[in-house]
Automatic annotation (TrEMBL), chain A:
The chain crosses the membrane at residues 67-88, 100-121. Residues 1-24 are annotated as: Disordered. Keywords: Membrane, Transmembrane, Transmembrane helix. This is DUF485 domain-containing protein. It comes from the Bacteria. The keyword Transmembrane applies.
UniProtKB/TrEMBL annotation, chain B:
It comes from Labedaea rhizosphaerae. Keywords: Cell membrane, Ion transport, Membrane, Sodium, Symport, Transmembrane, Transmembrane helix, Transport. The chain crosses the membrane at residues 6-26, 47-69, 75-97, 117-134, 154-172, 184-203, 305-329, 341-361, 394-422, 434-453, 459-481, 488-510, 522-540. It is found in: Cell membrane. This is Sodium:solute symporter family protein.
Length: 138, 592
C-alpha cells in the first residue's frame, strides 16, 4: 500500500496527530480532506528523519545540477568570445550584411541564447518540483 | 542652456504621473508587510516590469549608449552582463531566496546562519551600499535636469529626492511597485520611439553623408564645433588636427590657432577648443581613437583580462544588489520568483537593443562628446542633431523624460531597500518607523549629493557591480547551496571582498590624480576579488565547523521544497503580522 511505502525507513509509525508540538484546534483525524499519507511524508520532511532528509538532499542536488547544466555551457560560450577574437583577429573583419561579426556576436546573439537557456531551466526546475510533490503525495 | 519648453513639459508630466500613481497605490497600504514587501502579492508580470523599471537606471538609459559611443564593441558587454546577471539570479538565487521567507537581506542572513552579529553587519553594509548608489543617482539627476532647464544642479537632485520620498513615505513597496512598472514601459517607449524615428530619418536620408563607421579613421566633426572643457582631460590625437584654443594646453597658456600632431595632449579645465567641419576628433585617453579599433572588442591581452573581469562583475553582481533583491521578496512564492526573473530577461533584452543602436548613431552625429569624455549626454543630444527643428526638440524631450524616469525608479528602489532595513533593524519596524527611516534615508543622501563634488563619489558601474559580486554574492550562493556555511566564514568573506574592492576604488582615485593608467585589475577587480571572497567564505566556514547552525536542515528544506508543500514561513508575518495571520502561518499553506 502506498501509505506504508512512503513510510519506509522510519523508526516507528506514529499517527500524525502525535506531532512534537500538538495544537489543540487541529484535529487531523477529523479532517476528511487531508489524506494521511500526505501528512506523513510532509511531517517526515519537516521532522528531518533520515528518509526525509535524503529526499530533500536529492531534490537540492537535482536542482543544482540543472542550474550548472545551464550555467557552464553559457559561461564557456561567453568566455570563449574574447579569447577567440584575440587569437583569431581575422574574425573581426568578417561581415554579414554590412555588420561586423563581433557586433553580431555581442549585440544580437547573447540575448535569445540567454532567454532560451532561462526558459529551459525554468521548465526543468518546475517539472522536478512537480515530480517531487507527486512522489511525496502518492 | 536655454529653456527647452518641450523637455520641461515632459519632465513635469513624468513627475505628475509618478506622484499620482504612487498616491493612488498608497491608499491600499496600511501595514508593515505592505510597506516592506507589498504583502507578497505582486504577480510575476507586473513584478517583472517593476524589477526592470528599477534596474534600468541612468547607467542603462544614458550610460550604455555613451559607452558604445566611446568604447565601441567592447561596451556591448555591459548590456550582456546586465541581462546575464538575471540568468545567474534565476539559476542560483531567485526561488530559494523567496522561499526563505526573509523580508530584507540582513533578515535572510540571520534566518540562514542564526547570527545577530552577521545580521547587524549586513545591515550596515546594505545601508552603506544604498547611500553609495543613491548619491550619484541624485547628482546625475541634478546634472541632467540642469542641462534641459535653466536651474542649478541641486534643483534636480531635490526634485527627485522629494518625489521619491513622498511615494515611499506614503505607501512603501506597495506604492512603488506600480510606479516602477509604469516607469519601465515609459522608459521603453522613451527610447524606442526616438530610435525608430531617427533610424527612419537616417535611412530615409540615404544614410550618413560622410565617412561611415567602417572607415578605419578617427571620427569627424559634422559641423564647426566649439567644445568647452569643464574637467581636465587627456586627449589622444591619432591624426594631426588644426584647431583654435583659448585656455591652457599641455601646461602652457594658448590663444588662437594650434596644431596638434599625433600623441597625447593635456587640456585644463575652462579651456575652449574650436574645431572646423570634417577635422578628425581627438578622443579622451583610454578610449579607442579610430573607428577600426572601435569596431573590435579585443585589441590586446590587457583587453581580454579586463573583459573577463567585467564579465565576472556583471554576471555575479546583480544577485548581490540589495535593492534588486528587495523586489524579489514581493513574489507570492518561489515559482513566481522564477517566472518574474524569466520575464525580466525578456524585458531587458528588448530594452537594450535601443541604447546599442543609439550609441553607434551618436559616433557619427555627436563625436564632440568624445573630446570631453562626457558621453552620457549622447542620448539626450542625438535627437537634436539628426532631426531638425521642432521634431528634434520633441524627440529630445522624450528621451529626457525617459532619463528622468530612470532616476526616479532606481532611487525609489534604493530608498525602499534602505528604509526597510533601517526600520526593521534599528527601529521596531512599525509603519511609523518605516516612515521615519524613509525620511532619514532620503535626507542624508540628498545632503551628501548637494555638498559633495560629483567626482568624489562617482564609482564606475563596473566597480559598483564588483562590490556587490564580492560581498553578498558569495554569501547568498553558498548560503543557498552549501550546507556547511557558517556566519564567521560569511563575515570574513564579505569583509575581504568588500575591502579589496574599496582598495581598488581608492587606487583608481589616486591614479586619476597622478595621471597614470592603472592596470586592469585595479580598474575592474572582480576577476581577482570574487574568487578570493568565495575562497575566504569556504575556508572560514571549514575552520569554524562548530558554528554550523543546528536548524540548517530545516532552513534548507524551507528554501528548496516546492511551494505546493507549504513550507514557506514568511518571517515578516511572524514578526509583524496580526494574531490571526500568525495562526494561519503556523498551519502552513499546503495546497492540494
Amino acid at each position: 500500500m502506498s501509505k506504508h511505502a512512503a513510510g519506509n525507513g522510519t523508526p516507528s509509525f506514529e499517527p500524525p496527530v502525535e506531532q512534537p508540538k500538538p495544537r489543540r484546534k487541529r484535529v487531523v483525524l477529523a479532517d476528511a480532506r487531508a489524506p494521511v499519507t500526505v501528512l506523513r511524508t510532509v511531517v517526515e520532511l519537516e521532522e528531518q528523519t533520515s528518509y526525509g532528509e535524503q529526499l530533500v538532499r536529492g531534490l537540492i542536488r537535482e536542482q543544482l545540477q540543472t542550474a550548472l547544466r545551464v550555467a557552464i555551457p553559457i559561461s564557456v560560450i561567453f568566455l570563449a568570445i574574447p579569447a577567440l577574437l584575440y587569437f583569431l583577429p581575422r574574425l573581426n573583419d568578417v561581415t554579414f550584411a554590412g555588420v561586423h561579426l563581433p557586433w553580431l556576436l555581442l549585440g544580437v546573439m547573447p540575448f535569445p541564447l540567454m532567454f532560451g537557456a532561462a526558459y529551459w531551466f525554468n521548465h526543468k526546475a518546475e517539472s522536478h518540483e512537480r515530480a517531487f510533490v507527486d512522489m511525496v503525495e502518492h | 542652456m536655454e529653456l527647452n519648453l518641450f523637455a520641461a513639459a515632459a519632465v513635469l508630466l513624468v513627475a505628475v504621473a509618478t506622484f499620482s500613481i504612487g498616491f493612488r497605490a498608497s491608499r491600499l497600504a496600511s501595514t508593515t508587510q505592505d510597506f516592506l514587501v507589498a504583502r507578497r502579492r505582486v504577480r510575476s508580470r507586473r513584478n517583472a516590469a517593476a524589477v526592470s523599471g528599477e534596474y534600468l537606471s541612468a547607467a542603462s538609459f544614458l550610460g550604455v549608449a555613451g559607452l558604445v559611443l566611446k568604447d565601441g564593441a567592447n561596451a556591448l558587454w555591459y548590456p550582456i552582463g546586465f541581462t546575464a546577471g538575471y540568468l545567474a539570479l534565476l539559476l542560483f538565487v531567485a526561488a530559494p531566496l523567496r522561499r526563505s521567507g526573509a523580508y530584507t537581506l540582513p533578515d535572510f542572513v540571520e534566518a540562514r546562519l542564526s547570527s545577530r552579529v552577521l545580521r547587524w553587519f549586513a545591515t550596515v553594509f546594505v545601508v552603506f551600499i544604498g547611500i553609495l548608489y543613491l548619491v550619484p543617482q541624485l547628482q546625475s539627476a541634478g546634472l541632467t535636469i540642469s542641462s534641459i532647464l535653466p536651474m542649478p544642479s541641486w534643483f534636480g537632485a531635490v526634485l527627485v529626492a522629494v518625489l521619491v520620498m513622498i511615494n515611499v513615505f506614503g505607501g512603501g513597496m506597495r506604492a512603488i511597485t506600480l510606479v516602477q512598472a509604469f516607469q519601465y514601459w515609459l522608459k521603453l517607449c522613451a527610447i524606442a520611439v526616438p530610435t525608430f524615428v531617427m533610424c527612419a530619418l537616417f535611412f530615409g536620408g540615404g544614410g550618413f553623408h560622410g565617412p561611415g563607421l567602417a572607415q578605419p579613421q578617427s571620427p569627424r566633426f559634422t559641423a564647426d564645433t566649439t567644445v568647452t572643457v569643464r574637467t581636465p582631460v587627456l586627449l589622444t590625437v591619432q591624426e594631426p588636427v588644426h584647431l583654435s584654443a583659448d585656455g591652457t594646453l599641455d601646461g602652457a597658456a594658448a590663444e588662437g590657432p594650434v596644431f596638434w600632431g599625433g600623441g597625447t595632449h593635456k587640456v585644463d579645465a575652462g579651456t575652449t577648443l574650436r574645431f572646423t567641419k570634417d577635422s578628425p576628433v581627438p578622443v579622451v585617453a583610454g578610449a579607442p581613437a579610430d573607428n577600426a579599433t572601435w569596431l573590435k572588442p579585443v585589441t590586446g591581452s590587457q583587453d581580454v583580462w579586463a573583459t573577463y573581469s567585467l564579465m565576472f562583475a556583471l554576471f555575479l553582481g546583480t544577485m548581490g544588489l540589495p535593492h534588486v533583491l528587495v523586489r524579489f521578496y514581493t513574489n507570492p512564492d518561489g515559482g513566481a520568483a522564477r517566472r518574474t526573473t524569466l520575464h525580466v530577461m525578456l524585458l531587458l533584452s528588448l530594452f537594450y537593443l535601443f541604447p546599442m543602436l543609439l550609441g553607434a548613431l551618436s559616433r557619427l552625429y555627436v563625436p564632440e562628446l568624445l573630446v570631453t569624455g562626457q558621453t552620457d549626454a549622447a542620448v539626450l543630444l542625438l535627437p537634436g542633431k539628426i532631426a531638425s527643428g521642432t521634431l528634434g526638440q520633441v524627440l529630445g524631450a522624450v528621451t529626457a523624460a525617459g532619463a528622468f524616469a530612470a532616476f526616479l525608479s532606481t532611487s525609489s528602489g534604493l530608498l525602499v531597500s534602505v528604509s526597510g532595513v533601517l526600520s526593521t533593524d534599528l527601529l521596531p519596524g512599525r509603519v511609523r518607523d518605516f516612515r521615519v527611516a524613509t525620511t532619514i534615508a532620503s535626507a542624508v543622501p540628498l545632503a551628501l549629493a548637494i555638498v559633495l563634488h560629483p567626482s568624489d563619489v562617482s564609482m564606475s558601474v563596473g566597480l559598483s557591480f564588483a562590490l556587490a559580486a564580492s560581498t553578498f554574492c558569495p554569501v547568498l550562493v553558498l548560503g543557498i547551496w552549501w550546507r556547511r556555511l557558517t556566519w564567521v566564514g560569511a563575515l570574513l568573506g564579505m569583509l575581504t571582498g568588500g575591502g579589496l574592492v574599496l582598495t581598488a576604488l581608492v587606487l583608481n582615485v589616486v591614479s586619476r590624480y597622478t595621471g597614470s593608467q592603472p592596470p586592469w585589475f585595479v580598474v575592474q577587480p572582480a576577476l581577482v576579488t570574487v574568487p578570493i571572497a568565495f575562497a575566504v567564505v569556504v575556508l572560514g566556514s571549514k575552520a569554524t565547523k562548530a558554528k554550523v547552525p543546528p536548524d540548517v536542515n530545516r532552513i534548507r528544506l524551507r528554501m528548496h521544497a516546492p511551494d505546493k508543500l507549504g513550507f514557506i514561513r514568511d518571517r515578516d508575518v511572524a514578526r509583524f503580522g496580526t494574531a490571526e495571520e500568525r495562526a494561519r502561518l503556523a498551519d502552513g499553506r499546503h495546497r492540494k
